[in-house]
Amino acid sequence: MPDTLLFPPLNSWFPGKERPFTIFGPCSAESEEQVLSTARQIAAAFPNNVFRAGVWKPRTRPGAFEGAGEQALEWLKTVKEETGMPVITEVATPEHLEACLKAGIDMVWIGARTTVNPFTVQLLADALKGTDIPVLIKNPVNPDLSLWIGAIERIERAGITKLSAIHRGFHSFENISYRNAPRWEIVIDLKTQLPTLPIICDASHISGTPELIQSVSQKAMDLDLDGLMIETHINPAVALSDAKQQITPEVLSKLISTLVIRSADSNDQDFHRKLLELRSRVDSADDVILQSLISRMHLIHQIGEYKLNNHVTIFQRRRWEEVLKRQIDNGGASGLDAEFIKKLYEVIHEESIRLQTEIFGRK
Ligand code: PEP
Ligand code: MN
Questions:
Q1: Which CATH number does 10-258 carry?
Q2: pTM value?
Q3: Which residue has the higher pLDDT, 264 or 181?
């Protein structure tokens, strides 16, 4: 995708909406009563909200509640008429999309289990041709940025201009406190590759539990993401899907009021002067790091030659353990995170081994 590609900002889709752009509403539309009572409370606190509710639900195992289906589109229409909030739901097939377009649903999202499949995304892209409905694309369940960008690209090539990504975290085999690992570095990478693409953070599916939603949302705002999707249910305890992570409209209001929304820039001259000064000091520190690395690699070069001439192996486990321990202790004494030092030294060590292997190979 050319990096000159320009996506319109979220506040141009629905003028008047400020950052964060919000998408609050239940995981699933369960009944007209549940949808409307949740929507009324959300609209009272967040009149500019876009109301979400899943109509067709992708469930991991068969037999669970799979959504109320097409009848729920009527409930969403009522939400829109009564509260004025635009409405959004998930589409996974061209038939879902067609039903949404017919019902006048304002926006659609493509779910994580659909983004993983290029065949299905292409079917949706073909069905979207000739429409101008805004489309939000969740990341695939696996941490594959190319697959995510590929899905965005397919929809963009279908002529859809109002596009946004939704970050909902990634499946992890490790024992983590999140339902889906946030892997923020992947989102930063997406932002670097497609700088104008809006990104919304689905704090609910990352968290999996109400306790983590605030900190995940704050982090998303601090990384300058554009909006938040948070699952909100009038009575989470009896929700037919994702009961564990949904919060009431009341809890949602409190949570949002605690968020600190900082802007990515400031007009204050003093702020800019001070920032410039700090940044030039960071640049100097970076220069010192690089000079040290150059000196280190020169020494590694000499060591490589020396080992080769003396018939000694490149890698000596005990020495590597000593180096690592020494630096973890050194850094730890100044408050540096041990895990960070370990990762840093693993990269440095890998390069040292590569250099010496090259020397050994030459002779
Ligand atoms: C959802 O938003 O309810 C949902 C099914 O999400 P995901 O596709 O991220 O699992
Ligand atoms: Mn859900």
A1: 3.20.20.70
A2: 0.83
A3: 181
